[in-house]
Amino acid sequence: MVSRAERGTSEQFSGAQRATLGRASDAASRPRASVRSAGAQSLIDGVRIIPLKQIVDERGKVMHMLKASDPHFLKFGEIYFSCAWPGTVKAWHVHKSMTLNNAVVSGRAKLVLYDSRPGSPTRGEVQEIFLGEDNYVLVQIPPGITNGYKAYGDTLVILANCATEPHDPDEIVHMDPFTKDIPYDWGLKHG
To answer: Distance between CA 85 and CA 187 in Å, rounded?
Structure first.
């Protein structure tokens, strides 16, 4: 397990992660990644998938997300909402010290995680998590996990993130969603 102090070091990120990649690439020419999907269990070390409670009645519903008394609560930095139209890919990014707590409160999203952390027992693993109206869960993503999402379905996706730190542009590394450095294809998988 990587200590909190070690997770925030810039040495753990590859040169490709430290730089924002501006090139576009042909998704069809990339090799298919060995991708694993998970329901209620994470396949990447340190990632947690927590089923969330909804209280539904004839008036509507209350959707719980995260509270200070939850055993997986770490600390509060800020909460924000990322919105995307169907077919939109918002990726890739990796946080150096921030833990993310993602939940889709409206619509459907495919959250993709890639473990590029040196020394991680799951280094090189790619994981897809389908979340939203059909699977209301909180996905807790530790620092150093490259992540992004694709909106799918027929409505705007609203992804809530309750982060452990306020936004700091120097704390996040952005990468091109179609970089060849991550073995993943955002295309629809038929078959």
So the answer is: 16
Identify the structural domains of the chain with CATH numbers, from first to last: 4-26+33-174 (2.60.120.10)
Chain centre distance of CA 110: 9
Per DSSP, the residues of 127-147 read EEEEEETTB-EEEEE-TTEEE
* Strand-strand pairing, 126-132 and 108-115: antiparallel
Task: Give SS3 for 5.
Answer: helix
Instruction: Determine contact, residues 140/48, Cβ cutoff 8 Å.
Output: yes
Q: Are strands 35-37 and 126-132 parallel, antiparallel or unpaired?
A: parallel
Q: What percent of the chain has pLDDT over 70?
A: 79
Q: Report whether pLDDT(129) > 50.
A: yes
Q: Which residues pair with 120 in a beta bridge?
A: none
Q: Using one digit for the tens of pLDDT, what is the confidence trace for 85-123? A: 999 999 999 999 999 999 999 999 999 999 999 999 999
> Does 186 sit behind a cis peptide bond, omega within 30 degrees of 0 on the bond before it?
no
